[in-house]
Amino acid sequence: MTASAGSLKAREWIECALNEVVKEVAKGTDGKPCIELKRIEGYEARVDKHLASTQFMTKDHKVTYCWPGKTADEAWRFSCVVSVLNAMHAAICANVTVTKRDIFYGEPELFGDQVIVDSLIDDIVHTCQVRREDLHVTASPKGLFVSPCANRGEVQSIASDSVFKTSPAWILVMEKEATFNSLHQSNFHHCHQAGPGLLVTGKGYPDIATRHFLRWCIGSTDHAPQIFGLFDFDAYGVDILKTYRIGSKASATELHRNLPEIKWLGIKSEDIIQLPSSAALMPLTQKDRRKAIKLIESAVLEQGGTVEELLDCREELQRMLMLNKKAEIQVLEDQLCRWAERKMLEAMRDST
């Protein structure tokens, strides 16, 4: 299999960086081995006047790792960078894919924590300006999907190469695995009036593989299935929806996986106010309110106005703050299937 242009670009950058380190080490006490990476510090939307569309821009800063450094901590961080680069280089040269966990368990005593590896991978992806798959690194499977169109309708983990031959009539993405399990056990994906569909959960914030899988599902046929989402009525549910639609700071180099097409079914404020007084609604905490306000601010463009993909999110967050209430999707209890089907059919009719 021929290496991608991105893989060749990444390999060249890694080899150049490591060769410079070797040259500096060879100088002995006069050498100053250093590796410079770029780290994303911000992610914001701007309107491109020429393209008449919203563009997402990153702000970054340089992070320099040197050996032996001024402290033991600096020396350790340099060693971590070299170890991750070596693992990536070996994977690219061997044309194999490794997981982030594989890299961590290659030298667990060195890294100490998986988050160190994850952070360095994000920085290297951004520095090289390539996709994660170009570095032959992927996350361990996290998301789940089930469809009568694939594998006899059994629940499957979403890997970077998950595909199926028959396109579903629709896709329903859920924030939580509990919601996914409820609809799966009710055969929602088999029995829907609109035809057989695809149930997906990222189990919270979606990983790259889940977003890649959904992007592939939508773009792999001439008649793209409509995609819908079920998220909690709280700031974190809205933030997860936002991640599906426009990505996040951590995935700012993966804009081609964004899913602005997701139609948010709920639950929303209109559903909350129709619930009986006995429903398990919860008051917002100060942390909830701060999170909601931060999300509202992030939806505002520098030039004024609101990011188009986040208009409904901003409105619902404002209503949430006014109501001072939040609720999980499970508040619908045994009404979930009928409610979800009604909402999907209404959304389908509205889009025709």
UniProtKB/TrEMBL annotation:
It catalyses: ATP-dependent breakage, passage and rejoining of double-stranded DNA. Its EC number is 5.6.2.2. GO terms for biological process: meiotic DNA double-strand break formation; meiotic DNA double-strand break processing; reciprocal meiotic recombination. Keywords: DNA-binding, Isomerase, Magnesium, Metal-binding, Topoisomerase. Its cofactor is Mg(2+). One of its GO terms (cellular component) is nuclear chromosome. InterPro entries: Spo11/TopoVI_A, Spo11/TopoVI_A_N, Spo11/TopoVI_A_sf, TOPRIM_Topo6A/Spo11, WH-like_DNA-bd_sf. One of its GO terms (molecular function) is ATP binding. Residues 76-137 form the Spo11/DNA topoisomerase VI subunit A N-terminal domain. The active site is at 105 (o-(5'-phospho-dna)-tyrosine intermediate). PANTHER family: MEIOTIC RECOMBINATION PROTEIN SPO11 (PTHR10848:SF0). Belongs to the TOP6A family. This is DNA topoisomerase (ATP-hydrolyzing). It comes from Cyphellophora europaea (strain CBS 101466) (Phialophora europaea). The lineage of its organism: Eukaryota, Fungi, Dikarya, Ascomycota, Pezizomycotina.
